[in-house]
Specification:
12 helices, TIM Barrel, alpha/beta
């Protein structure tokens, strides 16, 4: 007999026009396979589907050859030739009833384009920002470039739908997505209607989400992934602006996926990384008050385990579901270490919550989402 406290985890949740069978939500994360090893990447997701996950996402998929992150290996959706590879992955996700999600990315100033040899594009003309500090300069996008970018996104939306995906995630988190580059005053120094005020800096974000809804919104849920803080102070897209942004655009996506700050801050080893660093960011943005702004839209805030019950930090996440503060249990690291979804299966069959997701691990806070 399952403890009734956990019944909420297995309730179906509507995300736009589609419905997840439960609240276990595997946020986008890479596994090193990418376009090079698509069969292995698909099998990894199939195992998750068999384990009972309600939502399963790919890693980031580059949507156009003018922005790619070679030598790092991610997925690609550059043209129609990439559709069969991704369709294999969505089929694997669907095999046991999960919703299939794809994260579309245009890396912008994070893409050195060492393979395509294209000149990188960004909101402003700045050196690109990569882990390898490549000596490459991005050029500032003009209005024609922005129109092209929107067209490339619309083409990618159509291809993702053909490939069988139920959810489309627009990536603007961890410094990797063009949406974040336009939002951040550290990378957006424009003086036109795409720069300056938060309203102007979020214009591209609004246009891309609107394009997604116009193109595939009747059959696919649209999610938007943003960082709670760029982690560079007020110079960049800071936590102080997150609540204002969501209140300004609360009607946009079907689900707000609010990630921890920079990639380095939320991608440590699963058995060592402490995952409560986003608590202050969540608290400062006052997400319990955002529920009124978001109306019936889903909210997924990837936060840590500092809460009322310090002995059982995972119960903190359960409390947020019961209070209506969040709509899903977001996971990535746990999805890697527990591919078969033992924690979901265990709770569903009535096993004690000390197994899996809600187990106590004093050396690392609550599982939080990773890219």
């Amino acid at each position: 007999m399952r403890d009734p406290r956990y019944d909420i985890l297995f309730e179906p949740v509507r995300i736009g026009p589609v419905t997840a069978k439960n609240r276990f939500y595997q946020v986008p994360h890479c596994n090193g396979g990418g376009y090079r090893d698509p069969s292995a990447a698909a099998e990894m997701r199939r195992i998750k589907s068999e384990g009972g996950w309600g939502v399963i996402f790919t890693e980031q998929a580059e949507l156009h050859h003018t922005s790619e992150i070679t030598p790092f290996i991610e997925l690609r959706l550059w043209d129609d030739a990439d559709i069969p590879m991704l369709a294999r992955m969505s089929d694997a996700m669907h095999e046991y009833g999960a919703l299939a999600g794809i994260q579309l990315a245009y890396p912008g100033i994070n893409g050195p384009n060492l393979y395509s040899k294209e000149v990188p594009r960004g909101p402003s003309a700045l050196p690109i920002r990569t882990f390898t500090n490549d000596p490459i300069q991005a050029r500032a996008m003009d209005k024609e470039d922005i129109r092209d970018l929107r067209r490339w996104h619309r083409n990618a939306f159509k291809r993702a739908k053909i490939a069988g995906f139920d959810l489309i995630c627009l990536y603007g988190a961890h410094g990797f997505g063009i949406i974040q580059h336009f939002l951040s005053t550290a990378t957006n120094q424009r003086t036109d209607d795409y720069g300056g005020t938060l309203k102007n800096r979020s214009r591209l974000m609004r246009e891309l989400v609107a394009d997604a809804k116009d193109t595939i919104g009747g059959s696919c849920g649209i999610t938007l992934r943003l960082s709670l803080d760029e982690m560079i102070g007020e110079l960049g897209f800071a936590n102080s602006e997150v609540r204002d942004l969501i209140e300004m655009h609360g009607d946009l996506p079907d689900l707000w996926d609010l990630a921890h700050g920079a990639w380095e801050d939320c991608s440590g080893p699963s058995h060592l990384a402490r995952c409560d660093g986003a608590d202050d960011q969540v608290r400062h943005a006052r997400f319990h008050r955002l529920r009124q702004t978001l109306d019936c839209r889903s909210l997924l805030a990837q936060e840590g385990g500092r809460g009322a019950d310090r002995r059982h930090p995972r119960m903190h996440r359960l409390q947020h579901l019961h209070s209506g503060r969040h709509d899903h249990v977001d996971l990535a690291l746990h999805a890697k270490s527990d591919l078969h979804g033992g924690m979901a299966q265990g709770l569903a069959s009535g096993k004690d919550a000390s197994q899996g997701l809600f187990a106590e691990h004093p050396d690392r806070g609550l599982w939080a989402g990773r890219t």
